Amino acid sequence: MPDAESLAGIEKAFAAVGCPAQVELAHVADPAIGAALTARGYRLESFENVLGRDLRGAADRVRPPGVEIRLSDDDEFAAWLDVAADGFGHPDDQDPPSDQQFPREVLTRAIRDLSEGNVRRYVALCDGFVAGVASMCVVDGLAQFTGAATLPAYRRRGVQTALLSARIADAAGAGCDLAVVTTQPASRSQHNAQRQGFELLYTRAVLGTRGAGS
């Protein structure tokens, strides 16, 4: 349970760069944390689901017709980043509406920060054209699936399923025993992940405020 002084310090650090504080609170956390945050002015903004998959006995790769998955090297990072930003910047029209919309430059900066270092990047090709991208971070036997985005023109062709399948196989080959992915509840991403054997581990509430603790 964080004390009031710790929370105030976090909020001050965010305010110093002109950003409202935001907390992702797992439903398995101490209920007193949620009460403390709402007392400071935090409000519920959205929910996120964290899903996991046991990688022991991972299934064979799924290869939809016309879709090819390969690793993406550093030489094409700028192009990979453009596709990721375009995909995230155009939400799937079959997903529940989201109240979190960000300018392209903000999206690009965030994706870049999360896609460097110990991260494997992937490209999906549809009939030879770049249709989607994804990434994966492997740490201590845990594979975190991140950065998955498909360009609108290539949706409903199995791109995300192929990207999930490739990362599952690679993670298992790297000796990981668990993969995790975060999705918006009731989204196509969650549906695709569950079709590939992922199960809900926990839900987290996203809480935020402008001027928390003031």
Strand content: 25-35%
Gyration radius, rounded: 18 Å
Architecture of the largest domain in CATH?
3-Layer(aba) Sandwich
Number of distinct beta strands: 8
In whole angstroms, the N-to-C terminal distance is 20 Å
Number of helices: 6
Would you give an account of this structure?
With 214 residues, this protein is of the alpha+beta class. The chain has 2 domains: 4-47 and 204-209, no CATH class; 57-176, 3-Layer(aba) Sandwich (Aminopeptidase), CATH 3.40.630. It is 32% helix and 32% strand. The protein contains 6 helices and 8 strands. Strands 1-8-2-7-6-5-4-3 form an 8-stranded mixed β-sheet. α5 links the parallel β6 (142-150) and β7 (178-183). It is globular. The mean pLDDT is 88.
Blueprint of the fold:
Blueprint (H helix, E strand, L loop, with lengths): L3 H13 L4 E6 L4 H9 L3 E12 L12 E6 L4 H13 L14 H11 L4 E8 L2 E11 L2 E9 L8 H15 L4 E6 L4 H8 L3 E11 L5
Parallel strand pairs: 6-7
Antiparallel strand pairs: 1-8, 2-7, 2-8, 3-4, 4-5, 5-6
Helix pairs in contact: 3-4
Q: What structural keywords apply?
A:
214 residues; Aminopeptidase; eight-stranded mixed β-sheet; 6 helices; 8 strands; globular
Summarize the structure.
This protein has 214 residues and is of the alpha+beta class.
